[in-house]
Request: fold
Amino acid sequence: MAAIKLKNIVKSFGDTAVVKGIDLSIEDGEFVVLVGPSGCGKSTTLRMIAGLEQATSGDIVIGERVVNDIEPQHRNIAMVFQNYALYPHKSVRENIIFALRRLKVDNADIERRLAEVSEMLQLEELLDRKPADLSGGQRQRVAMGRAIIREADLFLFDEPLSNLDSKLRSHMRTEIGKIHNKFGRTSVYVTHDQVEAMTLADKVVVLHDGYIAQAGTPMEVYLNPANVFVAQFIGSPSMNIIEGTLFNDYLLVDNYRLPRKQLSNVALQTVIDQQGIPVKVGIRPDFFNDSRLFPETDNTFNFTGLQIDLIEPMGFDKEVLFNLAGEAVKARLDLRSELQRDQQIDLVVELSRVLLFDSETDQRL
Amino acid sequence: MTPLERAEARFGWKLVAPTIAILGLLILYPLMYNVYLSFFDVQLNGSKTFVGIENYIKLLSNSDYYSAIATTSLYLLGTVVGTTLLGLAMALLLRDPFMGRGLVNAAIMLPYVAPVISVVFGWQFLFDPISGVVNYLFVDLLGLWSERSNLIGDPDSALWVVVLFDIWKHAPIAYLLILSKLVSISRDQYEAAAIDGYGPIGRFFHVTLPELYFVLATVVLLRLIWNLNRFEDVYLLAPNVETLPIFTYYQAFTGVIDQGLAAATSVIQLGVLSIFIWFYIKKIMKW
Ligand SMILES: Nc1ncnc2c1ncn2[C@@H]1O[C@H](COP(=O)(O)OP(=O)(O)O)[C@@H](O)[C@H]1O
Ligand SMILES: [Mg+2]
Reply:
């Protein structure tokens, strides 16, 4: 097992910088998820940790070793590839124990570990098949088995679930969580799926265009996003961002005046002059509530008389679209709220949930 | 078979039917005629007398026949192993794209596309005992040999010159076949093997070689078939190297002309070759 440090890692392909300076500490036994939109440099970062890609500059430390010039085969890592990368000529059994053969583990031990892993991943029936004769989900499990049978210092996952259908994906997500709880190995997991990030991670690292936009626990990035990008990337449906103006005593959104004193999650405390300052106001759809069910308190604000444009029932919840300051804004209400299109509704929001971002830099205020 | 597959199969047969018919006439007829001839004593004027298996008996009691088999075996072993290994080595070496790869490829293909007759004379010149480069190099320059020798003149050493010539001329086609497979092997298998702890040698044996198995088997098979029947290269470069095709030729067209005997030789050769190829395709290539 090992802790990992990335120190100012930069990676360019030719003239194109893909990873633009990443600093990251991963503790021993921690499950870190690198999440971000496609093309933001997640795989490249992971592959540099694996040694499959050489960093243009910066240091990578695994355990006590600076591994910059150490080949992947000497890094003692296990990895699950996005397309699984199974050996087509080897049986499932040989695929799984291939690394153990290299390590010259004795046969009895190999058999014991193989039995354990294949039971855990329900591979017993498949051991003599070739990868070509397996379904996508089965291949995925073989790739998992090949990784966990090793006692590697470090586990790397590159979007291991993205080729599965949604049911299998959520099942395997749970399995990966269980496996990590059982073995407690340091893991770095790459995904573009924020649900995987939220559910699996001890620490979520949101990547944006080659930079770390924010790193923190799932709840930190959900409740206290550092910028508009993270705010909108994490959470589904995405956070509403509405134009507003911050005055010394209140926040003006459309015609509503939210008392500034009670915006307890806003760090900005300076005196603001007459014209006010333009800001972006972030409110998650989940934090709107139907005022008929959630009465107003001292710490809530009531957006009265909102005109409903669209209702999307989802079963337990429904998503309601309305207009606020010229933006289509979404609220997620539970099934008790009986609503109709074109009806007017009053929605309450806890003022501590209202976030402000700089309108120029998109950074949290 | 699904109905779609059945329809495809029927269509396939229709497409290949004319080819099969023409090939049948062109190949099967001379083949059968050859089998037929092998049971006759054929005179130069064309008259034939049925002699049963006498040709076969005569052949099997001829010690030259066995020495031709031995020569052919050595020739096959040397050329098949040589071309395959050289082709593989070149393909591995030139696998990654580099500047001027097209030019290098063209140069490598040159021996393969050059007409035999022209390169044969070049080779004879190289090995010439008086003015040849080879003797100059090994005797005068390096001093490895104590005296000049006529390597092509002596049948024992000529065999190895002929083997060398064939490797030089046919390694390019092995190279091309192997390279085309090599560049299609996906990178992630190598990456997975590296992660699993295998260095370059382990990756060669566990990823490259299994992927190349089929193309290597094909190269070996093709080389065997071509070279078992190889005539012109050997005959032109060193007519004293009596491989089976050349032995057959001498039987049929020189000295005491005996076409019946020659026919018997080729019938045996065809039989052995057929069994051999059947076995190879079934067991090695696992078709
Ligand atoms: N070998 C490469 N050569 C050139 N560009 C590359 C290479 N690998 C990745 N890239 C580029 O780097 C960017 C980030 O890639 P990647 O790390 O795979 O993104 P992600 O995994 O976050 O989707 C992409 O724009 C991709 O096109
Ligand atoms: Mg990727």
